[in-house]
């Protein structure tokens, strides 16, 4: 098996596991009524670890899987997650010396942007997400949880990218 | 380790990738909006495929979820505990289990004897999950699907009254749009005079608004019952009167020459558990 196939296989495995975790477990863990969005987190971590292209590709597939379980239009999460995954890669590249704290900050801010972008696009397509009175609570809780959860997600993304779990590549 | 900055060629490639993905997602959104069957069947298949995974995960994580709910809902739990203590007194654990089983049975029996359904064909189902999204999407998922004859448009009720209607069906699961959804509009009949109007949800689980069709001269009083159905060409069966709630406030709208009715639901949406799906679909 060549390196490219291994990469695809590892990322696919990670995406499927994250999806099962999101749908089967995390949807019921709702501090303040909000559950973490680990598919969005995966897109961000993909960008942080693998660069902007990887962030966009992982974000697209993570978002598409996410859309399958939601009742809104198919493709909205895919677009949002791909864009924030790409942006996370660009941001990480623009940092001279990467650190865990910077990666956490990117995951936190990226999650907030991702959720807000999703709300805006959904509203355009006929839902009431942007006018949801809990919008800012959702953004805050999701970004804080994703900021913390990225400490666990980053090593997994490093593994998927082929850097090894203990690599210092953020 | 990944290089800190990408050479120009890679950056060009990244932008190209982003452009392709953006175009792809816009295409998917457009196709989905136009109702292309391939996309909806992919979504339905994934829901069916994941149904056992979700069931198994929920079963495995029940103790953790209970512990989590215990931590996050401590105040509610304490209140409930006090109520339970008062109600149950010195009952033993076995008696509690038996009571719980009896309650479960009663819930099911209750749903089998809904007076307003008459002899209409229906299917009992259980609510298995609330909204999948963090944003309020006013839907719940039930554990029965097309293999038991359920279809899009079927009204969903409890003994309390109208809960909503099915908007998506897979083989084993269905998604119900709740009447609380601001986009849920339904023809209603109000009071003993059976005045006809149109109402919609408001986004909360307490109030339903009837803001069309009830003229200023129509006689409507607080506490009057509001029913869905009883109207031809409605999304509800014309031969059934399904309760929605009772009139709480009446406000005249002089500009529109109508009375706006604020209606309190008779269904307790915080405790949706077992529901009944009426096997009837609207004509259009």
Q: Quickly name the level 1 CATH class of the domain at 91-284 in chain B.
A: Mainly Beta
Distance between the termini of chain B: 60 Å
- Largest beta-sheet details of chain B: 6 strands, antiparallel, barrel
Helix- and strand-based class of chain A? mainly alpha
Strand content of chain A: under 5%
Q: Roughly how many Å apart are the termini of chain A?
A: 26 Å
Structural class of chain B: alpha+beta
Structural commentary:
Chain A is mainly α and 170 residues long. Chain A has helices at 3-24, 38-50, 52-69, 76-94, 100-124, 135-161. In chain A, helix 2 crosses helix 6 (135-161), helix 3 runs antiparallel to helix 4 and helix 4 runs antiparallel to helix 5. The longest helix of chain A has 27 residues, at 135-161. The model of chain A has no long low-confidence stretch (mean pLDDT 89). Chain B has a domain at 91-284: Rod shape-determining protein MreC, domain 1 (Thrombin, subunit H). In chain B, 34% of the residues lie in helices and 27% in strands. Chain B has helices at residues 8-33, 37-72, 74-88, 93-112, and strands spanning 122-129, 139-142, 155-158, 161-169, 174-178, 185-190, 195-201, 207-212, 225-228, 242-253, 258-265, 274-278. In chain B, the strands form two sheets. In chain B, strands 1-2-5-4-3-12 form a six-stranded antiparallel beta barrel. In chain B, a hairpin with a 4-residue loop joins strand 6 (185-190) and strand 7 (195-201). The mean pLDDT of chain B is 81. At the A-B interface, helix 1, helix 3, helix 4, helix 5 and helix 6 of A face helix 1 and helix 2 of B.
Task: Please give the structural blueprint.
The complex is a heterodimer of chains A (170) and B (284).
Chain A: H1 3-24, H2 38-50, H3 52-69, H4 76-94, H5 100-124, H6 135-161
Helix pairs in contact in A: 1-3, 1-6, 2-3, 2-4, 2-5, 2-6, 3-4, 4-5, 5-6
Chain B: H1 8-33, H2 37-72, H3 74-88, H4 93-112, E1 122-129, E2 139-142, E3 155-158, E4 161-169, E5 174-178, E6 185-190, E7 195-201, E8 207-212, E9 225-228, E10 242-253, E11 258-265, E12 274-278
